Amino acid sequence: MNTRISLIASLFLVGFFSCKKDFDFDNGIITPPVESEFYVSGTNIFDEVNSYEFNYQGGELIHPMVEVTYGSASAIGEENGEKYIVSMVGTNPGSYRDRTFKENDPSGGPIGIIGSGLYIKINSDRPASEANRKFTREELAELIQVGKHYGFGSEAGQVEIGFASRDIDEKTKALIPWQFPGIQGTSDMPNTESFFNVLEIDEYEDPTDYKYAKGLKAKVRFNVNLRNHFWIHTDLYLRDVEGVFFFEYE
Hints:
By secondary structure, this protein is mainly β. It has helices spanning 2-19, 137-143, 170-173, and strands at residues 39-45, 51-57, 71-79, 82-90, 100-101, 117-127, 159-165, 183-186, 195-205, 214-228, 236-249. It has one domain. Strands 1, 2, 3, 4, 5, 6, 7, 8, 9, 10 and 11 form an eleven-stranded mixed β-sheet that branches. A hairpin with a 5-residue loop joins strand 1 and strand 2. Residues 1-35 have low confidence and may be disordered.
């Protein structure tokens, strides 16, 4: 009898560990939607002669020594009494998932926790009192549309862009004129000649079963000028940027 119990127990343990997924529930980090079609790439120009290409590809390892990949996730926020949605592609998507950015957020807002990558913030005319819930599908479909004109700014219907790079290689660091370990910029500067286009929109469901998510997968293309946070005399110019971003709805 004891032998039979021991055998059953052994089979249970073998089955448990062979099926165990590499998810860390203890620290509260939930991996957001990640697949190869989420990406953002383009050119960062920071003076008349120096520029470099960037490419954050969902599903690719951030570093060969760690099993962490780039990904896309979205969050809700409130600013100037109105609600917005922000989606990022980059190294720190877990910090965006199920987050609500408050006015004057101590984290620094969407740019403060992005790690390395790029975010798109789309402002709505819905009141900040609704920031405790995600947008519905209908609300998000009204906000994100193919062919819709988007200006840059913090008003309803306008977009804002943020870009950060904190894992720059030594070759690129040698080109940067400021003595800081990274690049960080936001679009709160003149962008009259810039553009932002939504090219395609598709439904998306996160295939993982531990944290279900559904939303819109939007392919975008844009040029934008960014105010450099690290060097007041040098602006950043992102050109030929294209990417696919995840916007979650309830």
